[in-house]
Amino acid sequence: MSENKNRKVSTVRTVPSKTARDIRLLVLDLDGTIVDESNCIRDSVAQTVALAQSRGVAVAIATGRRYQSSLPAYDLIGSTQPLICFEGGLIRDRNTGITHRHWPLEARVVAQILDHTQRLSLTGRLSVHFHIEDDLYVSNLNDASSKFFEGSTVVPIVVSDLRPLLNRATTKVMVLSDDVEIINRLSTHLKNSDSRTRIRKYKSIMLLEAFHPTANKRLAVKCLAEEIMALRPENVMAIGDDVSDIEMLEYAGIGVAMGNAPAAVKACADWVTSTIEKDGVAKAVERWILID
Question: CA 73 from chain center: how many Å?
């Protein structure tokens, strides 16, 4: 791995061929990397990934999605490795059901989030979601949450009082609103809590997501590669498009940023491929794995 890891690199930069030949594990993000806005994976990408597998390279998924919603894409690319989901908060084997690692939020932190949301949501403008195991519990179906679930096969469990669930392991708490100011205020309140939070936009809805403070894709990929598969970082190639992928790209022997990724993600990559619309993953796999 080059020592100049914080400099933006161009697509013509070369990594020593020895490193490329050492790749034994390909880790792929989903949304924005192999899954487009229509929730589809292009045939060319699926075919190229299959060729990599035929050469003995294992393929794994590392996504921010919940476990169940990750499975269709996981199955489509034919992965047989444990699935990394919830931004690295959970590593579970699809075939055996074994949970290798789980980083849930502490109950007191979840309680703090509920306290803050109750103070801020005087008019029902917030909807709180608890991700517990494979179930999704929702405090109320307001306009924002109804829009969030449009077109989804997820069936939320509406619970007027989420506090009885505090004794269960919550992998992620998500708070939705159509009011940006409320979400920003909640984020400010949670800055000193023992959680890792981020704000993002989805379908014009503002979301605040809270995870265990040490849950991230880097630690999850490291666990998969080194503890489960007995590999080293130089045996790993990772591809992603979001800021949540940065640590994973820095860990991997070859970290590839999508052409549609923000500048900060590209700056941390060893190589920048084309966009998802132009089969960026296929081009990266051809460049670094399907080499003669």
Answer: 13
Please report the domains of the chain, with CATH numbers, ordered by start residue: 17-102+215-288 (3.40.50.1000), 107-211 (3.30.1240.10)
Q: How distant, in Å, are the alpha carbons of 173, 178, 208, 224 from that of 199?
A: 12, 13, 5, 27
pLDDT digits (tens, 9 = 90+) for 66-108: 999 999 999 999 999 999 999 999 999 999 999 999 999 999 9
Residue 274 · residue 241 · CB < 8 Å? no
In this structure, which amino acid lies at residue 70?
S
Alpha helices in the chain (DSSP H): 17-21, 43-54, 67-76, 107-120, 143-148, 180-189, 217-222, 246-251, 263-267, 280-288
Q: Residues 13, 4: contact at Cβ < 8 Å? A: no
Q: Interior CA angle at 12 toward 255 and 36, to 5°?
A: 55
pTM of this structure: 0.88
The SS3 call for residue 286 is helix
